[in-house]
């Protein structure tokens, strides 16, 4: 298997619980909290581990929450390299109202990284031995970090000969796409911003994705269509893979699970058609679980077989 490294610039501890009848200005008695490692790239590495793959997660970590983050990953068997930073790692809070099954998600802002700390994250990517075949960046940037930071990672990927996979949004996505990536995973809204149009309907996805590819800065675009599955576009290929219909409990972690499935497939040198099908299976499997839980391998394998059976052949 080819080596995979994920990088998370805005990691978090995700604390989740449940309560009956969330009512304003009342003391709410909650269930015992669950603590999980969070942040886009970290979740990609966690999902890869659940799929019995291997990766290295790089992230800044500070204070007691940063130590807890490392302890959680160690217990899950996820390989990691933590970059020590001064500010404490952020904590998010998720509460499920068990009477309605409504989920309330409270995302806290990350703390600023100094230029030296940000540079240390880039240096970690440069000095990994052996050099990674794939570098995956997913999630948001913390406050104060320049919007071109993912573009800087793209340049590092070129330096070390790695393929760069990116899942983010806004100006950081646009700047990195202009710098050059191997694979982008936008949703429809993110693709429309990249293309400079207000909205994109499903039938127009391939047109605008091809425009990005034709600029020469991206080889593969995998557009997430939510319940509609995903569409894979390359210079020579268009492949729409519908998502299986399942009972959805939560969409948290679906995107990171999808990225994990795709990158793991790339690491195992599967075809691009197999990659997008496995990614859709992973993203769909994550929605079957409650809270912030990621995909489960048994669910993924079942869904992948279903997708391969009822969609176009996977020989690319």
TrEMBL record:
Keyword terms: ATP-binding, Kinase, Nucleotide-binding, Transferase
SUPFAM superfamilies linked to this entry: Ribokinase-like (SSF53613)
Coiled coil: none
Top-level taxonomic group: Bacteria
InterPro entries reported for this sequence: Carboh/pur_kinase_PfkB_CS, PfkB_dom, Ribokinase-like, Tagatose/fructose_Pkinase
Every Carbohydrate kinase PfkB domain range: 14-296
Annotated family: Belongs to the carbohydrate kinase PfkB family.
Entry protein name: 1-phosphofructokinase family hexose kinase
Organism expressing this protein natively: Rhodocytophaga aerolata
